Protein 1
Amino acid sequence: MFKAVVTINFKKSILDPQGNAVYKALKSLGYESVRDVRIGKHIEVNLDVETKEKAEAELKEMCDKLLANPVIEDYYIEVSEVEA
Amino acid sequence: MRFGVVVFPGSNCDADCYHVVDQVMGHPVTYLWHGDKDLKNVDCIILPGGFSYGDYLRTGAIARFSPIMDKVVEFGEKGGFILGICNGFQILTETGLLPGALIRNPSLRFICKDSYLRVEQNETPFTGKYQSKQVIKVPIAHGEGSYVADKETLEKMEKAGQIVFRYSTSQGEITQEANPNGSARNIAGIINEKGNILGMMPHPERCAEAILGGEDGKLLFESLINWWQGGKA
């Protein structure tokens, strides 16, 4: 059994309205050091496949098809083996 | 001209679209269930507004994989007319039938109000009855209507005349203040290259009768039916 964690964020070129609102809120709380805030998605998927490579390949396909929108988002996949 | 209105779980403007085609335009219309694969031989498909699949993941992302959508995409690629309104526009960008994407309004607010649009392109089957640069009043109601696309795509659409509606002032000026949702280049509605698939965030079906405060949206339906009848003659 493998567990994949997918992190999805807006591409750098896309304005992130939620990140921007949180950025302003942090500033107003006095956190002067904050330079940028981006809010993305965190998706966990458990897969019953033989190998890590297979898990990564399947996840990539899932991201391209459904989990992320390549027009506006980038994704990052991290796969680890877990006990069934 | 036969119309079909797709009903997804969470659609909430399906009955309005049905009503306009049936009662205002007097043309045959049928509902198309998201779980079916039969387009019932319609000539135009309307993807209505609403919150299909609760807007989970991204707006339109899950609706795009409904059983009926494979047929809708096929229909559109063959040149069939598709009108995507609000959530329907979001679904069309998710399918790739229209370029770009719609993201959260920069204000983070759900905006529900009348908006002024300037008709940028009246040489389409959907807009032939409008005057070029005519200003129309059409309501918007969305939280995620900010249109984005990369610069190359935007330039290509400008050149090809694919930008059909832009948010404007009541005088037809394209300004930052008139842009309710931060859309790139004030874009409110676009059409595909072939000219058979239109997506727009504003709701023409909500302003197709005087009793509802305006009839500017009716011309869109009239244009399409007129085009269809002319094409057949």
Protein 2
Amino acid sequence: MNLITGLMADATNIATIFLMVAGLYVVIARGNMVKKLVGLSLFQSSVYLLYLLPGKILGGSAPILDPKLTVYANPLPHVLILTAIVVGIGTLALGLTLVVRIKEAYGTFEEDEIIARDGAKAGEQGDVA
Amino acid sequence: MMDPAFAEQAITLVILLLLAAVTVGIVRVRGLFAAVVLLGAYSFLMATLFVVLDAVDVAMTEASVGAGISTVLFLGALYLTDTKEATGKARELAPLAVAAITAAVLIWGMSDLPEFGSADQPIHAKGADYLARSLPDTGIPNVVTSVLASYRGFDTLGETTVVFTAGIGVLVLLRRRSGQGKS
């Protein structure tokens, strides 16, 4: 039991950082734009976790007041993260709409193909001028 | 009878391990459909973890918005575009280095954070004591609701503004698309 308690002190933080960094890696390493947005969602969710972990008190309960209970989790991180989740879905919807538009305009949603096409177009215009 | 504090720690650890496994799956899988479905599983696990962390309102929102609506949005986008992902060349080293450096800096920065689950942290001692004020001030037993709607009502107004703006953006982008389709 002591082993788990000792491990917990660092394990929650390290696991949260792992989830976060995995999301960051997907955003940078994958050229596909939908995959990038999946990575961004991973990153976002792990930030929610980072905010909620310190609010927890072991043996406490959810911040809904009741005469039978005395120890509650801190409600402020919960409120902030509720706002963050709703704003996150707004940005995700906008990002996905942009991906749909890019796919229709370019015929692809792979980052390097789009850059290659833009480069080719700029080269043609340079030749004409 | 198991000590509830120990049980909470054990469950948190198990769910974190499951989350890590799903994350590895998302990073490694090729094909967008699988990635999106795995992201839905990730959100549900995250919602379960939020219940263990006593954030029941956040858990409900994460399960409905994170696992529900965002999965539907992703699937809609895949329907309008393509589910295939280019298998392309490896661009592994630089992103891995950036991720590793970020992880190292974060671990260094978080090394002196208070211990998980202890009651004597500044977050519980300092700041506005909403838990004591909520019932006399507003009469609402759910403190998250009273903070969201009363004490931080302007935050929520700003949030709705952001969502409204995003909705307008989505509508404008999609309307241009259908207009071009007709002409």
